[in-house]
Batch of 4 targets.
Target 1
Amino acid sequence: MHISLSDYLLDIVQNSFEAGASHVELTVDEGERMISCTVADDGKGMDEATQRRALDPFYSEDGKHRGRRVGLGLPFLQQAVDAAGGVFALESEVGVGTTVRFSFDRKHIDTPPLGDLALTLSTLIAHPKAQHLLVTRSRAGSGSYTLDRIELLDVLGEFETSGSLNLLRHYVASQETDLHAGNEE
Amino acid sequence: MAKMTLEELRNLRNRVQGDLQKRDIEGKDSRIIIGMGTCGIAAGAKETLDSFIAALDEQGLTNVSVTQTGCMGLCYVEPTVEVIVPDMPNVIYGRVDKQTAKRIVEEHVVAHRLVTDHIFDRPAADIIKKDGGK
């Protein structure tokens, strides 16, 4: 199990990149009562049998790790949602893409803390297989911000050297800090 | 911290690039590869990644490549990090928490001295290529 919701997100958005998605939309909404997240990609998708197996911790996609029989990303998330009485939904179609939605009741004692979301978002933007990643982050009563990987790539040039990554992390952290300060633009 | 605009980010970027052109490039061709599989994430790999970037910034190194990869097969000593520095052996470090990441930058990357108490391996046998991944 992961410690924070941010870690679950980091884990499952990587699935989209590895499924060959060219477009991934991530939304994180902190409502009054619920924290809701959606990860929608246009990757290769899964048929119904594969969707069921993706939730089995002892299944991993062929070829990802030769000889291994463990795949914990989605099963961990589903287990955490179940433990906290939240909602989890997986929709997928071969050749179209996959959407994972989940939400947690903020008041439930077993709901994991949100964790360092800014760090998760900058890590995802810098993922070597990421292409077009669009993030919409909102928080009840304090507004929202969006991050567009293509736009940031245009500004920074690349996400591989320590200099660019340092600027990226400061930029994303400033968006998140501003959201918590409640300053709507 | 005030909310940064894309324009401010662009200006900062241009300034950093200007600095780069001015001086001889230390850290060039050095690479840090961080295992960011489920095992790595659970053990705190994103904080490790952040610590590397902060420590490199402290040393004024803007051109070290820092990338993410999946599980390297050493799940029992996550977070794991491969460090490739010219004229140094390629090393897989394990149990790299924030403090160790800082040490790796100061000792391995800058001072060219191995952080021997965290060395684990080259990648596990089912990951490496026949040539040893070289």
Note: The helical segments of chain A are 5-18, 48-54, 73-83, 117-125, 149-156, 162-181.
Target 2
Amino acid sequence: MAVPGGNGRAPATSHADPRGDPFLRTQFAVPARPVTFLRRDRLAGHLDEALLTPLTVVHGAAGAGKTLLAADWASTRDEPVAWLTAQVAAKGGGTFWAYLLEALRLAGVTTSADAGLPAEAGRADDRLLTRLAAELSTRNTPVILVVDEYDRVTDPEIADQLEFVLRQAGHGMRLVLVTRTEPLLPLHRYRAAGTITEIRNAELAFTPGEAAALLALHGLRLTADDAGALVERTRGWAAGLRLCALAAQGEPDPRTFLKEFEADRTTIADFLLAEVLKRQTAGTQDLLLRVSVLERFCPDLANALTGRTDAERVLTALHGQNAFVEYLGHAWFRLHPLFGEILRAHLRVRSPELEAELHRRAARWLRRSGSLGEALGHAAAADDWETAARAVIGDLALGEVFSGLHCDELSRLFSRMGPEPVSAATDLVRAACALSRCEVARGSSRLRRAAQALAAQAGSADGDPADLAATRLSCAFLETLVARLTGAPGRAERAAQFAEQVRRDVPDALLEAHPELIALLLTHLGSARLWAGRVRAARAALTTVVDSSGTGATEQARRECLGHLALIDYLKGWPGRAERKALATVTAADQGGPPPVSGPGLASLVLAAVAVERDELDRAQALLDVAVDARHPPPDPVTQAGRAIVTGRILLARGDTQAALEAADRAVVADVASPWAEAHTASVAAAAHLAESRPEMAVKLLEDVPGDEPVCLVGAAQAELAAGRPEAAAELLDRMRPQGDLGPAITVRAALVRAQLAGEDGDYAAQCGLVSRALREARRERLRRPFAEAGPWLRALPLGALAEGRLPCGPTRRGSPARTGEQPAPPVVEELSGRERDVLRRLAQMMSTEEIAADLYVSVNTVKTHLKSAYRKLGVNRRHDAVCRARELGLL
Amino acid sequence: MRYEIRVDGRMTETLVKAFPELDHVLMAGQTILFGAVVDEAHLYGLLARCQSLGLRVLEMRQMPS
């Protein structure tokens, strides 16, 4: 099975926000001014000062005329203007910044190409903002960035980030915030420094003269007294005046209406809106009330809600009259936010039962038009979980419950779904939500119910065949996940085969749009295969995912797969390869990608295991802590077993045999046993027994492990040797021969056991040869643990005599595979003394401080003094660096 | 927590329905919405609702429960 879209295409990020949805063009449109718009020079003049200060804030109540003022002013500027309606901020910081970058790009300020895009919906990383600010700061003419409806930005982090960019961009950007509430920015500081232009509600209010001029545009002549009275009644509120004009226009005697209005004590907007509404035809009223449930709409969507076909004509007419409806461009409209709210209140009173139905219709229309996110929102608002679940499953978006970007959003949305309704789609979503929280029992029971419902449905001919295929594929996908989490490889294989069959019936466009589903499915399959010890088959599935071109959607699956491949390399005894793969996942995770789930947990485990092999125990412990600290509970048996093995190895290396035994004894619950997990835990336990001088128990333990796992054979050979049965040990090692593809971590250990055998036979030449070979092999991988384990006989060898027998170089800087030797070495300032050379030479022979002291007939402290001064002269601070450095300089 | 919110102008029945969780009483040129408020989030939510309906809040105070 191949991951769709894996042909190395460039990810189509430039026209999509991090949620994968295409940008809503309407968010970038500078609102059109109605024909009756009155330009007020005093405000435009004040707003001109925005060019002199980095920050401008236009605050005012709903309907105070803020947006139109800013839009009119912006349209007269020569500087590039980027306009953003901040509605999108509700979807998270990453989405907000993606939109902001797109707004700048549309304004001709080409930032998105250089600055990159946020990778996740929830947040944007600092590097991106720094790059953006740096680019803006180099501009000669400032870009004017207008953020409308800034009151929607409630996340203090976005406010902080925006302020950061504003400060860093300097003269390159002029920010204009249009908002109902004071923004969460340190305005006092800007005020004190005089770097802010503010236009507040009182200034936005119409004067009697302006009110008269506005009404004149509507064809109404007012005396100065009438205008004054009207302004007093409306407090100069733009929306009030506008509604007033609309209502009065329809009256035979506008003056009587205005008198009535002045006498009435009803709240202004409510009174006026009701007045204007009742002057519309019944059809128009109905349409206005119905579309009030939508944030924005096009004629076709409005028709879907009314069940009529006249929306285009009605909307165009309403927009022409400047009544309620604003045009957003691209055939989309919206209600004036204030009127929308009040219309919704009217809808609830007039037809309370209609609201849910309207949301349901909107959900259906939006899903058909491909806006899954909005469709889900409306389905949820209608409490129509069946439609919501069908939308997710039918769009093949179920993988998004697991893959980082949307997972929180989807889980949050569906957490409101109760136990009803029960159908294949809803149960699949329930199962997915439970499994994403690692509630395996709950998830698999829901999945079983879904599978039964699906089987019953299969015979009947109802429903869209594409939908049915997508549902089946989603079901198979969850099956592989359950199989992975319960360690059931057979189940995973059956599910994968089924997926392969039904996949043909799923439209290619869907598979292309959601490559993460197949990628995750293959990851689960690979993990289950690995658990069962079917390493080659596991590698095949995992490699398919890794080789697919990584779009953001499949990134998490790729990382998990790399983690598994790293584990395979480690188990085969190739720590270097394992480290490279594991590091590839970790660095990817650091680049502001989606939060890691179990992949990097596994990768950290592998890195910890590699660190143990190199005898870097503190680093190993730190890595293990990271892996265990991963925010999710231990997900699958592979990770659980890996954790037990690494914990055991670290404890063994630290000499805490009892704790190591306990760690190795921790049972992993799974359907089938895993050969490598059993072999490695047994080998840890056996080593612990061996360290406690109980070779017989070690032998017994390893005999019980079925199959000839190399790690067990080596362990058993060590135990047999310790028990005084060299022939049995040799026989065990011979059994290892036929197995190919064994890495140095295993072959070095085997060679050392052989060397010890040779030594017991008195064949020192063979022993030296074997140890020398082991050293050569270990050096490439920087393996040190096998030598530390080997026991006192090894250190008694005159290693200096071995031609190429060198110690593997010591640990390098954390997180860097590069050797310290690549850095320019500091020059030797002083010659080493004869005694220091003597000490160093013995150090190179792996002698301990005590042994050197005994050999040179001096005290331990004297040796330490020599060492210290040798370290100083060589510019190093540990033994192995000293030996390496001395060799480089030809001092040994 | 019990609160009362005093709003400028008489609210119509329709508009009052936008605050189903609160009772109301009409006075000369003013409306008083009152009732139990769950927590601060609810309180700010009510204020935002007033704002989005174009209501002028004159006074808002906690009442002894």
Note: The interface with chain A takes residues 7-15, 17-18, 28-29, 31, 51-56 of chain B (CB under 8 Å).
Target 3
Amino acid sequence: MPPFLDALLALAMVALATLALLDRQLVRACAWFVAFAVSVALTWWSVGFIWLALLELLLGALLTGAFLFHALDIRQWASAPRGRLARWRDPVPLTWQRALMRLLPALAVLIMLAIALDNLAGTPGPLLVGGMGLIGLGLWAFALHRHLLRRLLAFNVIGTGIFLILMALVGDRNTAAGHGLVVTGLLVALLGTALGALLIRRLNRLDGRRILDVAEAGRSRA
Amino acid sequence: MSQAWLPLATLATSLLVVPVIFSLPEGAWRVRTALNLGAALLKVLLVAMMVWGLYQGQSYQFSFTIVRGVNFLFQVDALGLMFAGLSSLLWLATTVYAIGYLEDSPNRKRFFGFFSLCVASTVGIALAGNLFTFLLFYELLTLSTYPLVVHRGHAKALDAGTTYLRYTLTGGLVLLFGVVALHVMVGDVTFGEREMLADLGPDAHGLLTVLFLIMLLGLGVKAALVPLHGWLPRAMVAPAPVSALLHAVAVVKAGAFGIVRLVYDVYGIGLTYQLGLLTLLAVIATVTILYGSVRALAQQELKPRLAFSTISQVSYIVLGISLFGPFGTVAGLVHLMHQGLMKVTLFYCAGNYAEELGIHRIDELNGAGRRMPLTSIAFTVGALGMIGLPPVAGFISKWYLGMGAVQANMQWAIVVLVASSLLNAAYFLPVLYRLWFLRGPSHGVGEWPDERHLGRLETSGWLIWPAMATALFSLMAGLLAGVPFSPLDLATFVTAEEYTP
Amino acid sequence: MIEWLGLHTAYSNQFSDSLLVLLVLMVPLLMGGVAAFWRPQRRWPVSFVILMALLTLGLLALFLLARQILEHGSQAWLIELGPLALHWRANGLTLLLLLLTQIVTLASAAYAPAYLKSEVGRGGAQAWLWPLQGVLTTSLSLIWLAGDLLTLYIGLELMGLAAVGLMLLPGRMEALAAGMRYLLLALVGSLAFLLGVALLLGGWGRLDLAGLAMLAEPGPVLWVSVALLSAGLLLKAAAFPLHAWLAPVHSSAWTPVSALHAALVVKGSFFIAVQLWVVLVPEAKAAAWLVGAMGGAAVLWGGVLAWRSVKLKDVVAWSTVSQLGYLLLGFSLLIGTGPTVAAVAWEGTWLQLAAHSLAKAGMFLATGNLIFSTGESHVKGLAGASRRMPLSLLSFGIASISLIGLPPSGGFTAKWLLLHAALEAGYLPWLAALALGTLLSAAYVFRVFRYSFVEDAEPLDYRRVPWSMEFFAMILALASLLLGLVAEWPLLLLRAPGGEP
């Protein structure tokens, strides 16, 4: 495995995650997220964790993606006219001040983590560097966004980062334990995302109905 | 563990009644009355059995472990029995009185349920064999009296309840801290094991003094020592039987009894004297006695006047304790009983005036002696006893207090005694004068505020007889002070135990 | 101190040995499934018979397990799944927690049919209630039994998801919004936990607690990982200042779910935190001080919020925050103090946990009954409720005695032990926190009672509460009360061989 490819993979993961987390068009963000999951699967493959790669592909890309699109009510999106896309857009604009403020906690965690990792033997591989990047990015996005779906995406990114670091630290010492943790983690992430996605959809529908009710009431009073 | 069942059964008579009363419907008046009276009678009987057994040299003990090093302990000694006897006797009277007083009023089920719980706590306090058990029932008493204080449910009662809780819960907490700290120092102290603290040596004296003060603070709230007395006058909004009970036996007495236990059975009078704490107690008692009397003088209503009088009178107990020497001890202990008898009489009478004639203010009492002679006689007995005139019980207390002061070489206490007796006379004699010598509605002058005819006698029999009985007891406790089983005899018995090593 | 956790036991990898413990884990799941299939509201004879059979099986397994532990000391099992090995162990503490879990879950599950039928009607996803309760019980049992970080992680995640699922069941807007918030927080908490575990695994290459206890050396890796683990766990345990999610979650959830959550779920995370600190950083006194300070702040802030709450359920929910603060105070007394202090604090902490679980579950059920019978969810709406003296108000009162920590409740005995430990360790600010916490909890509880005693309120139209709802609330409340008197029994379990402090 040439180091060049390693670096490229790590870069690809971080870049795709950045796109997924920063895109305000939610459908596009989810698409980026699926691409990100595929790149993670590729990384697992490249370091020799075939099973994890397959699992990531299945749970991370396929099922999580499906639930995310379900949360967005993708069929309605496809049939909606271009002008009514506001529903699939995060309305909260990003300001620099807020973005910088929210960076601080993420940085604090990263520094803490770096100190700890520095004390553990081992050369920084793509997993470690990519993982650190993903954790920082995810934490920042989680603190920054208010939209529930985007927070869910951020959660998934952080989780992936942690899995990468975990497997990098385990190396080949206690792979079974590492695998056990990651598989549990993946399942939990999937279940959490699924629950969250269903909830978002339910909330959207209830919310929409409530808005309609309010409008109805206002009209009848007028 | 000889005959452990007797103290337990005494507790159970009132504790087990509680769930039964709560499960009875509100309308089951007869069953509830029978149950209350039966339990109260049974309790008097059981306590009498224990008094008898104690004189025969029997010992009653019951204990089990709560957590390591902390035991729940019931231990019957003369002091505890004295208190148990007083409470069971007065409870019988108060139950009768409360049945009459609350006739046809709402929430009687709730009242009698908590009333019984309150008795159970007092009995627990009396029989407790160590500080942990004492604390347990001391706090239970707080809880069970709250619903009684707020029983009327109007804003004033609710506020009084809140004030009551603020004082007593804080006091209980402070006491808890003291007890735990003492436990950390020496472990479980069974009442009567005075040598445990005395053996600690002079190094521990500083800490012991601090702990004593902390526990005194906790107990002083319920004993209504100035300046911790604020809750008592406000709690006057409660129904008359509750006031009678709070003042004569339950709450105030629990505090005073706790101080007695602390001085005699935990620290030991010798150690307390050595630490110089008796002088402090004497000063606090003096201040409370004089302050309570002066404030009582200023009250225009009957119940608040009695309330401030209680504050003052209970501190006679503390004063008696603080006089180092057997006579002081006898005085303190005997007053524990005498004050209960006399004060309960006065409150019954105040309740009778309020119920029958709607009288709350003292200036409305003119000529009430003619309308309600029996009640007024009982009131007179109680009031004269409070002033300390022979042959009522109060005289015995004050006599022994004076002797104790001479014995402890604290002659100034006699001055306090005289001053406070004069004050007592100043706030009770005008009431008596109005009762008997002024012309009022029964002479055709004016009208009673709210006259009702509750019974064939001057008022309902349920209200008259308890007052007469306790008045009679106060008189007898003074007249027959020398016979066995009189309060004085019991107090002498306890004192003998205390001073003979 | 680590030996109190019973981790250093010879592991048995015979499948037959682990049958009992598997049974203990599986029975709740089965019971949940059965109850979902034959819904107790409709087909109670069928489900009752099968459930009783299963219950007997589960309790029998637990009983046999208990006998093994009490006779032969703690037991440990190695569950091998291919190359992966899970470590499980059980000692007296595990047994106590297992028993507690079963009692509370059973009470809440048995409360549910009548509640669903009369209060909820047809709304919400009712069929999911029992299976999720089963999952919750199993996951909690897994947490109590776990001897390695992987099992702990699985248990923690399962518990979190089941808890979120239970919260969502009502299906109303508020429930969903609160559930979503809770979900996100739970997920973030578990990520922090996982990252901490990853560091430990990277540092020392193993996940079993016994091995980590031997190998782990102080250093940045250990500190960072413990910090991450603790942060995740304390977030899930609603420890101050990570507590804000708790009250909104409770106010919209179904009553039996709230009871279960406040009684057990938050305790699961707390237990893991204690265990990890004892194993990994038993000497980190300064950090434990910090946790203790957080606990003190939680006691005060939770108390204040409970006091200011308008809604009845919020009072109970915020009081959970405050009570968890006591647990954190106990926690800080375990780490880095001497063995004598730690031994007392150890017993105090677990007793507090058990007492609070029972009391809080009872209180939530009683609150649900009060809301059901009066139709009022506000504290003020209870005005005059005590006139009927509904049993639920009594249950509420009994449970609150334990919450305030008044004798003779379990909360009192636990507070006694914690005070003892704090005094012995010289942690004086802790005393202040315990004192203020007691007063605050008295303030918020008696605020409720104050309203209930209002006499001139408009009469409420009461709905009859089904007897099973009254019954289970009362049982739990009474259990928390009596726990104080029989505290020695659960504590004897803690001192079973292989766990004695």
Note: Chains B and A do not touch (no CB pair under 8 Å).
Target 4
Amino acid sequence: MKRHLISAADLTRDDAVLILDTAEEMARVADRPIKKLPTLRGLTVVNLFFEDSTRTRISFEAAAKRLSADVINFSAKGSSVSKGESLKDTALTLEAMGADAVVIRHHASGAPYRLATSGWIDSAVVNAGDGTHEHPTQALLDAFTMRRRLVGRDAGLGKDLNGRRITIVGDVLHSRVARSNVHLLHTLGAQVTLVAPPTLVPIGVETWPCEVSYSLDDVLPKSDAVMMLRVQRERMNAAFFPTEREYSRRYGLDGDRMAKMPEHAIVMHPGPMNRGMEITAQVADSDRCTAVEQVANGVSTRMAVLYLLLGGSEPAVTTTPAATRTEESK
Amino acid sequence: MSKILIRGAKVLGGEAQDVLIDGETIAEVGRNLSAEGATVIEAEGQVLLPGLVDLHTHLREPGREDSETVLTGTRAAASGGYTAVFAMANTFPVADTAGVVEQVWRLGKESGYCDVQPIGAVTVGLEGKQLSELGAMHESAARVTVFSDDGKCVDDAVIMRRALEYVKAFGGVVAQHAQEPRLTEGAQMNEGIVSAELGLGGWPAVAEESIIARDVLLAEHVGSRVHICHLSTAGSVEIVRWAKARGIDVTAEVTPHHLLLTEELVRSYNAVYKVNPPLRTERDVLALREALADGTIDIVATDHAPHPHEDKDCEWAAAAMGMVGLETALSVVQQTMVETGLLDWAGVAERMSFAPARIGSLDNHGRPVSAGEPANLTLVDTSYRGVVDPAHFASRSRNTPYEGRELPGRVTHTFLRGRATVVDGKLA
């Protein structure tokens, strides 16, 4: 039984399918008049956010509350963290307050791993995004969305994404969403292609279980899902690309490009979208775009993760040491 | 001062001989020397080396006495078999004036555990803009001959050129911390497969190699000598090898940790492995060992960089860069170079004593173990095997990457001008 969810690479295929199946059960709760389960009553979930992310925070908050957990939101802004309190001291404080799970968002890659392995706290740790490393629950909710759309809500139960062709487009270099998705989608049997200008692909990507292409137009007709990553306009100042316009022209998804995708293919976006940059309004507002659905699915998926880590009796989320993890992924 | 007879030690790893110390000097080296009036140290099976010399130590004083002082740092040095260390200039205030280098020099004199030779900053405040008063530091009581902005690269090509030229007037040398600053903005670890996976900012090999290439060409152009600090990549080795073949007056150092550890350790996100330049790949490690063996890299220097616990017990990005190294250097060299057959003990003496003293123009260290020479000596029990326990360190800091690791060899005695600073593995 794993105690933490730090990296999507820690999940086996069966772990991941169990989380997705559990998330489907949780989604049904949302259809009830009273959207609440008593499962985590009396347990405390702390949302420890060192980095602003209202969307992810409220998603975790809603998930924990629907499971009847007590929720404490701890934001770096306006707390002692901004006065130089260390991660360690913050962790010890939360432990003393009796946190059963800590959902951590941190600007430093590896901070959740340190929190889970340093012996500072006993609680379960859920990585809600660390630096440019990973964002495993985002990958899970993305996989959940893909399975629903591409395989089917009921037909998908117990199934993975075997053979589906997933294209991830944009700032892979700085994206924790891309890293987690590559691991998880590979585990679930999908074929992943990353598309980006060479400046936004990390050195060392050749060992990742995916393909890399510099041409969006070549890949679109062979995609079952196209995930557009947010591209920060500021990247242009560091010469990752010449101008916003050029980026949009080469790597943005507009109506014409969307028309090149197979009819069943979906467009995904982890949000928040830069309309006019990586995605046009026409695409963002089309039926094929699942951005809003992803938000709803995020709550169900995070409920599943919290449930399996804190209350679930079946082995779900296991902990493999980092070293083993990487050997497997090579 | 009394006489000391070291009996039966393998001098530089060679034949067992007796070495008689009288006062501050080696009186005699030979077989069956008379022990009359001397304290005898039975050293059968042990290796006797010239006192080790570290060209690259951070003693932190003045300014960061919470991590190390000249006293604690020199105690650590003696424990590790060193009789002289060069103290880097990145203190607070920076050692960029005669006043600061003289302060460090005086603190070294007072410590008594090993000689401290201050390094002067190349530029004021290590800012790379204006040359420090290099001549004044050289003419001070500290007699500075090595200049370095270590921690920062002298990245402006004109400033570097001028520094290389200027110190020729008094036989000085510039020791370059080769790191192109723009290529390493936000750098957290070696750029490659592991950084891609871990999502940590990359420190590409080319950022080191491009500066080394530039600086050896500058040294050639102005006819100066240049020293390269903590060389860490296979590509850097090739450039230095090329430069030496071309006759360029370049010397280079490698740290013990770059001879043993790789970037794979960063997967733990344990900041004890965070260091600058970063741990590289297995391929780099093997190239560095080979280069140290064939003389392309001249010396081992520790880059001993003490940091308080709280600066390491945190998330990776917030942690300080650096590792302590004085007390484990010789053991790491024994494991990576001697036990692999790449170097014999005479080779170790060359790279950890003779050559660093020569590069730093330190006349009374790095001398042969023979009659009439200063009695700066290190006795090593090479058969010892032990697990590194930082609780036993003399250094004020504990940020060693070797905690819990078994390493060979132990310094049993260190002599500084005939006076034992370490006896039976303990500070005297």
Note: Chain A touches chain B at residues 86-88, 106-111, 113-114, 117-118, 130-134, 176, 179, 202-208, 322-323, 326, 329 (CB under 8 Å).
